[in-house]
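User: Study the fold:
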Amino acid sequence: MTPLAAVVTYIPTEIIVVYVAVVAAMTAPGAAGPTSFAAWVAFAAFLIATPIVVWLTYAAKVQSGRSNLPTDPSRWPRWEMAAGTVAFAVWAFALPQTPFISFGWYTPAVAGVAILVVSTSIGLLAPFVAKRITL
């Protein structure tokens, strides 16, 4: 598995698909990427939505097993919510049409290093902190 694929496994598919569609819709034909403000708004909105979607997915799986909705924060998949959010941020950071290109220090090489560091870190930590669904 590539480092990018390892990161993407923690991001809900709904977030990836819709974010890519939104960024593509915001990009003018022939432009390198969406306008800076619009790109940052989209990035922030999806960054905020990621842990919510992770929780909703977890809650749906718990309820499908006939268990109560995990409304108590102690029953939330906190690791998965955090890992998904960090994974989304680094994945969006590495996209060709990332809003981070507005920073002078941003390069694809920096994005590549970020992907490697985050995928390795998440992969090493996950076995120790991942939440098992208890039905």
In short: The mean pLDDT is 86. The chain has five helices and no strands.
